[in-house]
Amino acid sequence: MAGISLNGIFPPLPTSFNEEGALFQEMIRSNIERLCQYPLTGFLILGSNGELVMLSEKEKVMALEAAREAIPEGTLMLAGTGGQSTRETIWLTREAARTGADAAMVLHPFYYKGLMTPKALVAFYHSVADASEIPVIVYNMPANTGMDLDAPTILQIANHPNIVGLKDSGGNVAKMAQVTGQAGSDFQVLAGSAGFLLPALSVGAVGGILALANIAPRQCLDIMELFIRGDLKAARSLQQRMVAPNGAVTRRWGVPALKYAMDQLGLYGGPTRHPVQPLEKETKEQLTGILKEAGITTGLAS
Amino acid sequence: MAGISLNGIFPPLPTSFNEEGALFQEMIRSNIERLCQYPLTGFLILGSNGELVMLSEKEKVMALEAAREAIPEGTLMLAGTGGQSTRETIWLTREAARTGADAAMVLHPFYYKGLMTPKALVAFYHSVADASEIPVIVYNMPANTGMDLDAPTILQIANHPNIVGLKDSGGNVAKMAQVTGQAGSDFQVLAGSAGFLLPALSVGAVGGILALANIAPRQCLDIMELFIRGDLKAARSLQQRMVAPNGAVTRRWGVPALKYAMDQLGLYGGPTRHPVQPLEKETKEQLTGILKEAGITTGLAS
Amino acid sequence: MAGISLNGIFPPLPTSFNEEGALFQEMIRSNIERLCQYPLTGFLILGSNGELVMLSEKEKVMALEAAREAIPEGTLMLAGTGGQSTRETIWLTREAARTGADAAMVLHPFYYKGLMTPKALVAFYHSVADASEIPVIVYNMPANTGMDLDAPTILQIANHPNIVGLKDSGGNVAKMAQVTGQAGSDFQVLAGSAGFLLPALSVGAVGGILALANIAPRQCLDIMELFIRGDLKAARSLQQRMVAPNGAVTRRWGVPALKYAMDQLGLYGGPTRHPVQPLEKETKEQLTGILKEAGITTGLAS
Amino acid sequence: MAGISLNGIFPPLPTSFNEEGALFQEMIRSNIERLCQYPLTGFLILGSNGELVMLSEKEKVMALEAAREAIPEGTLMLAGTGGQSTRETIWLTREAARTGADAAMVLHPFYYKGLMTPKALVAFYHSVADASEIPVIVYNMPANTGMDLDAPTILQIANHPNIVGLKDSGGNVAKMAQVTGQAGSDFQVLAGSAGFLLPALSVGAVGGILALANIAPRQCLDIMELFIRGDLKAARSLQQRMVAPNGAVTRRWGVPALKYAMDQLGLYGGPTRHPVQPLEKETKEQLTGILKEAGITTGLAS
User: Residue A200 above 70 pLDDT?
Assistant: First the structure.
């Protein structure tokens, strides 16, 4: 298991559906191709924005296959493979490896919250990592799971040669500082949202998996480049401008807003799976205003 | 769609696995046969105790088939069929009807918490009810979902001819009173836990789907019979005694404790799916003590 | 410390302020006098509805003095005396005893949530009970404190000769069943809200301290009398009708709604202390409708 | 109301009590004098670490007076003055001004959580700011209040000439970025915990009010100086080392741990007010180890 470098920016690609609600593989490929004009390190397929939990077993594999066809060599494909049981997670992780994923991003089980003790969580990740041919990334997503992995548990999980990093979407940057400070130097932390990309970088994160990178890849890359160059003032100014549009397509209005924005910007957004509702007309207008004010208006080059 | 009466007690049957973790259909049947010596109104298959979220698509159908073979005519089979998408839920609800389920108990989607507005939830339940050949029961389970359906939303959902009832596991009895008082008289509320069976009955619930009914069916039935007979003092005394053992096999130690207790009492419990951990030795001893103290010791007749 | 019987219904009296926001002792007395035409067991002064936390040290004592002047002998005066420190709580408990309170209802400290371990909570209650000349009642109020006393902690606290009961406003009736079942037979549990009065009685509560009893004392007393008489059907029907108006003057719109309703019904409500806002016009209309629909319209006899 | 600059580091001084639990003004002064050998911008008196909620009205004023005697001119004294009512808050804010405080740090009311709407919160802060002769700083402390002020509400509150800043202890750095980006340029944000000092600075915070600055003032100042100098690598390394000791004296073990550490380091810690419990022996040892590992061992010069 050679090292994998997660430095950089990854869009967590939404999964495309057609108007009948069926998987739309062509649009998955086409979105990837357009986004590939930016120097993105890779893509996450089947994350929360990829509606993993809305897909049948067969569709999950089909989405990964479609993505891999479009993601060029040298660009990483991360695959979301976490399920409620170790068994299901191992199955999908192996399917991901078979389709050519470079790493598995694994959300932990959370339905039986009271039973997900540190011991159970460590056992889960270590079993999956043992069974996986590709490196494993831990995924913490409190807003959806109702749980929040703490630093001691993450550090224990990290203590496995096939577990290479963490995507944390919770925004607790103090925790990220603790993890980057105490985990081995090859354990890589990724910000899970553009809302705290710069502060995460400031404490040692190596990049981010950012919903916003689907619609503002340039700006996400710029924050990171400005930070690396040491131009903190410019980085901060851009970071501040990205908080509102990022909030709009994540916590506030979620995947339907992200897809709507993609439609506006020349990518394919399309519908989300029911029962998630399409945006109200008024919300669409508010969203358009927020994107415009943040300078996310010109569309991606085609 | 003729009426279905949910009056009475239903065990939410755990799904049996063998030592390798594979579905163990024979034990599903054997547990049902033993529990059928009690005048239970029916069984819930694939509830939270049935580890629905731990099963593959194929296993879900197999578990339902096994259960239906053992559940005699005249005893109801409720099938847990809720998934994160309307599409998946309709698929499994139809499979349940095909295997002979009498009603579907449908947990709402909860992964995208912020998007599960009342509008989305009502749309979800009404779409499923429209598509279902069998009656639909709403399922509220805050401890696992991190959401709590409120009375106005439930009342709106209830306003559909194919939605016949609610299982509420949250223990908010004031809400149950509001629902039983304001929903149509044919909307049936079931307590979701033996910890509040008697108080739920006092405000108009018609019965319960009770983990404890897997190991103490006699006591659960007795609470209900004493209540109906008007012997509140005896009902209360029994109810009070059931709170501790019920807590032990639900909130406190969950499915592994329920399965362990079944093993002790002559039923088949067996392992839970990973990463849920087996009980520690010390917990087993505590649990045994709690069951003993509550008089749940003699085992079920074989 | 002779026994005190808490059987029955207690309104937690709002504290009256005049239009300038100053304590209005005359109206405290006048409200009590009017409510005393009903066979209430007593009053709680300085509970959450009594805006305890909004009063200066001096005002707390003045409010208790005013109340005691109006509460006739034979009717109990409970005084809310819980503060964040043991020291402050003992001080106010002693002041309450001096003004003639029959018992102290003590909310636990909750500001330093992480430090309020079971050990700290037990130490707190036992120190207060040791120092108090009057019996102490434990008060659990999760919606305001952000904490929820669990049964084992309550049972440990209850194990003191000068701690005589519990008011639980959390609505977890399973917990109440556990406490009534396991505490000594002289430990008395009171429902903390009319929304779950009947279910609480069904598991052994002896009465309730009910915001609703300020505006619908007759109905609260009736639920209890019907329950005692064994007419569960009538009790349930009345209980169901009381859930909505009770919710309106508690969780939904709080003290300003309770005071507004009192104004409508011939008692003195008056303003709440800032920054709590007065009801919007639209809310007033909704509230009036809810009270009317529940039959709380005729006003209290004057 | 001339401008006040909050740039820099402020320890939120614990309030000293003697062994009988009485206010110990001499030790308040002595602690300040020792800490003043570091170039701290000022002190916060009567914050959460200052046990504001544990003090009587009189003691609050006495603590402020003692502090002012010791805090030299040119070093700022911030006074915690927030209460549950506007009235009480205005009273204490005026007392603070009278004793010589340079600004009031005002925690919002939180007991009636459901009633603390944005409208009520804005009204509260604006009333206090109108009545205050000294500038007002907003204080957000979710772990203690159970509420979390959001960016839109903060921005509305900030829109008052006498409200000059925010201390945010919640750690949501994305929110801080939004506030620093959208509030007027003279609105100053302070990190509320050393756990996220560097990330907060990276998005535009001007300093911090940090429990850790009571025991590791040098390190807190260094993080800030390294950041300003542009030596992010060294800043990050120091930030990472401070997460664990900071967590130990805040979220994990709280004020008793902070006071114990002060005792170890040559300052006066002393007891906390009951019912907060003193540290267990084992916790003391763990804490000593954590401080040592982080290099907080040599004590403050005397």
Answer: yes
Q: Is the pLDDT of residue A232 over 80?
A: yes
Sheet order of strands, A12-13 included:
A8-10, A207-209, A188-191, A163-168, A136-140, A103-107, A76-80, A42-45, A12-13
**Residue D156, pLDDT above cutoff 90:** yes
- How far is C192 from C209, CA to CA, in rounded Å? 5
Are B174 and C177 within 8 A, CB to CB? Answer: no
Integer Cα distance of C81 and C105 in angstroms: 6
pLDDT tens by residue, A106-149: 999 999 999 999 999 999 999 999 999 999 999 999 999 999 99
Nearest-Cα distance to chain A for B26, in Å, is 21
So where are chain D's domains?
8-235
Q: Best interface-test mutation with B: which of A274, A279, A283 has the largest number of B CBs within 10 A?
A: A274
Candidates C113, C119, C167, C175; catalytic one: C167
Asked whether at least 3 C-beta pairs link B and D within 8 Å, the reply is no
- Yes or no: say if C22 and C275 are a contact pair by the CB < 8 Å rule: no
Q: Find residues 29-48 of chain A whose CB sits inside 8 Å of chain B.
A: 48
Q: What is the pLDDT of residue D300?
A: 61
Chain C contact present for D121, CB below 8 A: yes
Q: For residue D3, what pLDDT is reported?
A: 85
Contact check, Cβ <8 Å, A273/B113: no
**Is C87–D273 a contact, with Cβ atoms under 8 angstroms apart?**
yes
Task: Tell me which residue of A163, A173, A161, A57 sits closest to A108, measured CA to CA.
Answer: A163
Q: What radius of gyration, in Å, describes the C-alpha atoms of chain D?
A: 18
**Closest to B206 (Cα-Cα) out of B222, B184, B228:** B228
Mean pLDDT, consecutive 10-residue stretches, chain C (302 aa), reads: 87 97 98 98 98 98 98 97 98 98 98 98 98 98 97 98 98 96 95 98 98 98 97 96 96 97 97 98 98 84 46
Please say whether the beta carbons of A236 and D179 come within 8 A: no
What is the rounded distance in angstroms from the CA atom of residue C81 to the CA atom of residue B141? 36
The yes-or-no verdict on residue D2 having pLDDT over 60 is no
CA contacts within 13 A on the Cβ side of D45: 34
Catalytic: which of D60, D113, D119, D167? D167
CA distance A26 to C117: 57
Report CB contact under 8 Å: A196, D180.
no
CA distance D53 to D111: 13
A167 is catalytic: yes
Q: Does B178 contact C at CB distance below 8 Å?
A: yes
Report whether pLDDT(A2) > 60: no
The answer to whether residue D280 neighbours chain C at the CB level (below 8 Å) is: no
Q: Residues A233-245: pLDDT tens digits?
A: 999 999 999 999 9
Residues 6+ apart with CB under 8 A from D263: D269, D270
Q: Name the neighbours of B, counting chains with at least 3 Cβ pairs within 8 A.
A: A, C
Q: Edge to edge, what strands does the sheet with D188-191 contain?
A: D8-10, D207-209, D188-191, D163-168, D136-140, D103-107, D76-80, D42-45, D12-13
CA–CA distance, B65 with D247 (Å, rounded to integer): 53
Residue A54 to residue B84, Cβ atoms within 8 A: yes
Looking at domain B8-235, what is its CATH homologous superfamily?
Answer: Aldolase class I (3.20.20.70)
User: What is the token pair recorded at A109?
Assistant: 């089980």
Q: Is-contact C21 C60, C-beta < 8 A?
A: no
Q: Contact B112/A277, CB-based, under 8 Å?
A: no
A174 vs D: CB within 8 A: yes
- When pLDDT is averaged across residues D194-223 and rounded to a whole number, the result is 98
pTM for the model: 0.96
How far is C-alpha D83 from the geometric centre of its chain's CA atoms? 16
What local confidence, expressed as pLDDT, does residue A227 receive?
97
pLDDT-derived band of residue D297, with 50, 70 and 90 as boundaries?
Answer: confident
ipTM: 0.96
